[in-house]
Amino acid sequence: MPSARETELLEAAYRYVLTHGLADVSLRPLAAAIGSSTRVLLYLFGSKEGLVRALLARARADELALLADIGAGPGVVARLWEWLSAPAHRPLLTLWLEAYARSLVEPDGPWAGFARATVHDWLEVLRASQPVDVRDTPAGLAARTRELALLRGALLDLLATGDGERVSSALA
Fold first, then answer.
1. How far apart are CA 95 and CA 12, in angstroms?
2. What is the pLDDT of residues 64-108, one digit of tens each?
3. Which of 14, 19, 86, 152 has its CA 20 to 30 A from that of 3?
4. Domain interval for residue 164
């Protein structure tokens, strides 16, 4: 169980990486920005990789909370897009994209498995929104995969251009 100080520093570090990114985070500027020291961060998280793993787990917790709130049944893709396209969520989604891409090009280390776990999480939410008789069929899996690919592609476009109206119109 993490200490109160570890939790406090993790939350501060999480807020920092939502603004500054995670891939090239350096412990010294991070520690200074969150009112700590590199020594304390290394003591609490073991290494920079340990801190990155903890930050990725924290980001994934936000993702899983979102997915739990989306619900199931008809309209889940529209509700997912509504959440994804909200400007307030751009920092989290940019961080998610950064971690997703890094886990593909650096499959070892702290990024390991992040993209695969994310795909699994989202496919499960989409599965729950399908009729029971379709969920466990090849057609159901194909439909979920298509919906996920569409959402992911739209999200990439939105993050690249900021043109929410155009992308949302295309999804509608």
1. 15
2. 888 788 877 788 889 999 999 999 989 999 999 999 999 999 888
3. 19
4. 53-171
5 in a domain, yes or no? no
Model pTM score: 0.83
- List the one residue out of 170, 33, 160 whose CA is nearest residue 94: 160
Tell me the residue type at 128: A
Q: What is the rounded distance in angstroms from the CA atom of residue 18 to the CA atom of residue 145?
A: 28
6 domain-assigned: no
47-71 pLDDT per residue, tens: 999 999 999 999 988 888 887 888 7
User: Does residue 13 sit within a domain?
Assistant: no
Place of tokens 């090009």: 105
Sequence-separated contacts (24+) of 90-93 with Cβ below 8 Å: 90/159, 91/18, 91/19, 92/18, 92/59, 92/62, 92/63, 93/155, 93/159
5: pLDDT confidence band, cut at 50, 70 and 90? confident
- How distant, in Å, are the alpha carbons of 5, 41, 86, 151 from that of 44? 9, 5, 34, 37
CB 59 within 8 A of CB 95: yes
Within a domain: residue 25?
Answer: no
pLDDT on residue 111: 86
Q: Work out how many domains the chain is built from and give that number.
A: 1
